[in-house]
């Protein structure tokens, strides 16, 4: 069985960044496994621009963004296996995969980086009643057809859900000559980025119908129309608001789900709100030596942050492997206990501080930090509603460690707050809570 | 071209009948209006091989149910179709239900159902079905009940019939039938066909087929049944087929594992006048949910993958119609095959062969009849060693197309190339499970369209989801033009 120091599963932005950074940190026995024909993951089908603003200070298309990393991977001579599907990870870190060239591949890894991305929620998960004709796609599938295969999935389009891919596809389909009739969003606010609503809907006069949903699908062979209705606060359709909209295509952009089925059999602690593994500030899961980054941990809105997380995971994985090989632990699978933020090992629970979501906060990542962490840690979080002039606080017991204000926050945009090394050193208990102090007004228009 | 027998309809009944007839020196054709076999009731039902305590003694339903159940064991081995004898429970929730169970028990005994047992109280029931509701008062246990895959059985029967020289004609809709000089002339959407005998296995359209020869002796009153399918994570919420005690108004909702390890719940029961109405309704799906939770309260509804509707070919005669037409004895009905039709199908097929013989068809055993059909090898189910061997023999096994169900290109290509092979995306899905998993084809649909287009030698724009003009794509993008 071939041995590898670091096996990275998934060659999208997270996995590519992890491979690059692990290599730059001195590890030369890395294998990057990708199931598609090229590296880059979903970036390859995102031909619109807007990628890399934070990281490179310029707006790149998805393929351009991916290309910068692919080039580095080639320069660093990292072992990449394309068209390769991983289907098992054992508890002793044996990764099993297949491809046409090598057949069945078994890799004994010292460390694993999970960068498997996410998938789209489907019609079945929404349980929209009606018929089952052709013409119903997730927005991402439609995007692949249009941008990579050169085919149009339809001509008259209704989009359900205002996630970013749905918004992007509203513009893309319009530019290809299709008529996008509306974007329906069940919630009273959009799930996508503000800039996408402006650039993809407003600029093309595509109506965004908030608090609206699709209640029935019509048509036997190909989609012929959908029934749209206003939704009340519980998301139930309101009588008397039903409207038939003729269309041959329904695109669904109703949420993304981290893909973690591969680790289902491993004793990795999962976070029920993100659907991803619980990670610490070094991107390590509760399984020692297994790191996770990108959309498989939680769904991001900007790829730049996915890349940064991938860097971190790659660096920490390399440090972890180095720690295994150094000193008294050379060649041993028994790690040094609790070395902390330098990312070497999974600590005992008592050496960890839990970061919990309090009032107004939907989820926060990382979910734990080492008590000995000597670096600043950026906490990423999402809120549960729209708030104006929102205040956020990180509390340890009855002490507030840090607080910040934001002019406006929405569930569609990821927020962050930095916990400095100094603040972390002052935490006494085993839990801190990130929350919005009570009494803040929810609601209102995003466009003010 | 003159056939000895033309079978109208390639559902499970037509397919098994054709396969039965292919044991003899006959020229057989199967006429199917859909783009795939098993495209009517056979693709959307409860997938259950019933024990046989339900039908009234003396009916064809009772007779063929018990016989069919017995035949399944060997049939599933010959055709390599999944079959699991997991047993069934009919749950009682009160004393009145228990009395009904006693009647079902007696009826079952009269029908010749083996091993029936009445369980009393929650404890005894939970020993067989741990996740059952604590409200249960008892259950009728039928160990001979089983699950199978109805469309896989249909594919297998058609493939085996084809291997034994039967001809299958897809997208061949029968438009009219005339009879002269001892021959039926069948007008179809693909031209005329002559046949000495006809088997009417046209499912929900079987009364229409009968009417083509002036036989109006029965009418099909289609009945809709809606189902919910859940992820494999819920598959072990039921170990047996869990029914509820039937009442005068409802047969209740069943909960069952599928042979693939998913959990299936349903069906509802509503009359419809529309023979192609496969729509679902929120109120009906809610009934399924309520009913299922009554039996097994712990089901996680967040794990619903999809919902679907099946149509039952319910006849107005209250029993199966398996007999020569009163108008022409060479026109044999295998009609009105509602539940327990899947179970009964093998027995019906055998019986129909006998009816044809009685009507003058000479049945001479074919010496080279091969009863064995091999299923498509499932890469996902193969051991690591077997996986390596498969890829060694055919590199297309190394290309995983469907990520959720680990389906390879080799399996998809084989599904397309087999007799009566897949022409549509749904046909590929049912044969290989590609697109049946968590992402419901989100990732693999474009790849499957590409493979279908390549294998069939047609443009991608002409690839359909199912029948008719259910094209997935409407044209090229501006850049690609």
What does this structure look like?
The complex is a heterodimer of chains A (448) and B (481). Chain A has 448 residues and is of the alpha/beta class. Chain A has three domains: 2-119 and 257-347, FAD/NAD(P)-binding domain; 122-254, FAD/NAD(P)-binding domain (3-Layer(bba) Sandwich), CATH 3.50.50; 361-435. Chain A has helices spanning 13-24, 53-56, 62-75, 123-126, 139-149, 164-175, 194-201, 303-325, 421-425; strands at residues 2-9, 30-33, 49-51, 60-61, 79-81, 85-89, 94-99, 103-114, 118-120, 136-138, 151-152, 156-160, 179-185, 208-210, 212-218, 225-230, 243-246, 249-252, 256-258, 270-271, 276-277, 290-292, 352-357, 361-365, 368-370, 377-383, 387-396, 399-409, 415-419, 431-435. In chain A, strands 1, 2, 5, 6, 7, 8 and 22 form a seven-stranded mixed β-sheet that branches. Chain A has a five-stranded parallel β-sheet with strand order 10-18-12-13-14. A five-stranded mixed β-sheet of chain A has the order 25-23-30-27-28, with no helix packed on it. In chain A, strand 6 and strand 7 (94-99) form a beta hairpin. In chain A, helix 1 (13-24) runs parallel beside helix 3 (62-75), helix 1 (13-24) packs parallel to helix 8 and helix 5 (139-149) crosses helix 6 (164-175). Chain A is globular, with a radius of gyration of 23 Å. Chain B has 481 residues and is α+β, with helices and mostly antiparallel strands. Chain B folds into three domains: 2-42 and 150-220 and 316-358, 3-Layer(bba) Sandwich (FAD/NAD(P)-binding domain), CATH 3.50.50; 88-143 and 221-312, D-Amino Acid Oxidase, subunit A, domain 2 (D-Amino Acid Oxidase, Chain A, domain 2); 379-462, BFD-like [2Fe-2S]-binding domain (Arc Repressor Mutant, subunit A, Orthogonal Bundle). The longest helix of chain B is centred in the first third of the chain and has 19 residues, at 60-78. The radius of gyration of chain B is 22 Å and the shape is globular. At the A-B interface, strand 7, strand 8, helix 4, helix 5 and strand 11 of A face helix 7, strand 18, helix 9, helix 12 and strand 23 of B. Strand 11 of chain A pairs antiparallel with strand 23 of chain B, so a sheet runs across the interface.
